[in-house]
Structures are given as C-alpha cells and as structure tokens.
Design a protein that fits this description.
nine-stranded mixed beta sheet, Pseudouridine synthase, Archaeosine Trna-guanine Transglycosylase, Chain: A, domain 4, alpha+beta, 289 residues
Length: 289
C-alpha cells in the first residue's frame, strides 16, 4: 500500500448535519479532497449539528491547539421526560410536569461557573481502557467518571411550559457535555430532561456562519492554518529565522509575550512555539518543511 497523501494544509469549517458521526464527516471531506491526511478538533454527537473544524495536511498537527478552546452551543432541552442517553436516542421515559420559567432560569444559574459534571454513560470516554458506551451497552455497572468543567453562561432564550421545550444559549469550556447539562437541569427541577437538539455555533472565535456544507467541500476550500489561530499571538519572522525554525532550532525575538505563539513568515504559518521570558522562542510543532 502507498503512503497516505499529506495534502494541502488547510482548516475547513464544516457545518455538520444531523445523522453522521464526526468521523463520517472527516471521511467525506477526505473523499472530496482526494483523500489527504485529515482529522477534526472536537467530536459532535451524531444527533448534533453545527461547527466541526477539520484540519488537513500538516495542519492536523494543530489539533491540540484547537480542541481546548471554549465552545458555544444552542441547545433545545425537553423538560418533563428523561432519556437514558441524554439525547433523542433514548430510550425516553416520562418525567414530571415542566416547571414555570422562573424556576428554569434559577436552575440554569446553578449550572454555571466551575461545576462537577458526571460523564454520560453513553460517551466515548475510556474507562479501564474501553469506551464507556461499549461497557454501558453490555449492561455493565460502571462507576461514571466525574470531571470539573466550566460553563461560562447558560442563558434561557425562550421557554414553552406547555411543551417543556427550553431554548438555551451555552458557552462552555472544553470537555463539557451539553447533554449532561440538559440531564442535570431536568433533575435539578425534579421533572427530568434531555437534550432534544444541539447545534455548535462557535469554537473559540471560529463561527458556524462561516462554515461550508458538506456538498460545498472541494479542493482549495477552507482557510490557511494561521487564520484558524486567532486566539494565539503571532510572531513574524524574517527569512533567516524562518529557516532556523524549519529545522527545529530556537530563535530570539523582542517584545514577544511568554507562552504559546504562532510563528509565521509573510502570512504563512511555520510552527507553533513556546516563547520564554528571555525572548528565546522554541519550536514545538513545525508545519513548514
């Protein structure tokens, strides 16, 4: 078998439809682009829609610098029913009567800030080396991991007490399960609840409004990798420093903030590096080559 083609380095914002897995979307992107190396930067459940950032070529090395970004969602929570999966997959069972709007707002306020969140039983998190959903579906009794996550906001956009449908705008840190927020909201209200619909609208400062539909994916689409790193300071290098970076050598620069920075020459991303207090910049991930 021949080697997988590296392909052009791009960051492609895809508006994922409901139904396919995130892996399916990456597969379809690869097919449309001639099967380059590709990967996504954060899973969306099959029922969810919205922004999936797909990296191709050497840009796949940037995934660790995008997966940890805050994310925004619009969630529709169905109160008054419970779902074993936390989403429409179910099975779904009856709960209590949906509460009034003031009660929903108060319960949402209790789910913001730094909170402890139980990982859903049907999730891809590994427990003892195996995916949690696989062990759950076999009927095993597994202690669900509890994680500390950050929910920056959970704003009630609209609510219909008759149907129990709550439209919620959420901004949260990486690793937060929105369907678990829906479940926890329902339990806090005593009526049960699950995430009936979910749409990711932002990853960092990348927006679904700028994303492509799957049938729009074609060679040359997407953005240069540097454009996907708007959250990161950029250090522009001259040709001599750029040559050093391409060989993994440290360079020096003045007035560079400490921490993780992007190194570029004439607008092209060369590497991700760590800038130290003394002005030394050490490449960590080199894209150019």
């Amino acid at each position: 078998m021949g080697e997988r083609p590296v392909g052009e380095s791009r960051a492609i914002l895809v508006d994922k439809p409901a139904g396919p897995t995130s892996h399916d979307v990456v597969r379809d992107v690869r097919r449309a682009l001639g099967r380059p190396k590709a990967g996504h930067t954060g899973t969306l459940d099959p029922f969810a829609t919205g922004l999936l950032v797909v990296l191709t070529g050497r840009a796949t090395r940037l995934a660790p610098y995008l997966t940890g970004l805050d994310k925004s969602y619009r969630a529709v929570v169905k109160l008054g029913e419970r779902s074993a999966s936390g989403d429409p997959e179910g099975p779904i069972t009856a709960g209590g009567a949906p509460p009034d709007e003031d009660s929903v707002r108060a319960a949402l306020a209790g789910l913001t800030g730094t909170i402890s969140q139980t990982v859903p039983a049907l999730s891809a998190v590994k427990v003892d080396g195996e995916r949690l959903y696989a062990r759950t579906r076999r009927g095993e009794d597994v202690d669900l991991p509890v994680r500390e996550v950050v929910v920056h906001r959970a704003d009630l956009v609209s609510y219909d007490q008759m149907t129990g449908l709550a439209d919620i705008d959420i901004r949260c840190g990486s690793g937060t399960y929105v369907r678990q927020i829906a479940t926890d909201l329902g339990e806090a209200l005593g009526c049960g609840g699950y995430c009936a619909a979910l749409r990711r609208t932002e990853v960092g400062d990348l927006r679904v409004d700028d994303a492509l539909q799957l049938d729009e994916i074609a060679p040359g689409c997407g953005m240069p990798p540097l454009d996907a790193l708007g959250h990161m300071p950029v250090v522009s290098l001259d040709a001599a420093a750029a040559a050093d970076v391409q060989h993994g050598r440290a360079v020096t620069a003045a007035d560079v903030p400490e921490g993780t920075v992007a190194l570029a020459m004439q607008g092209d991303l060369l590497a991700i590096a760590t800038a130290e207090a003394d002005g030394v910049i050490r490449p960590k991930v080199v894209l150019a080559g």
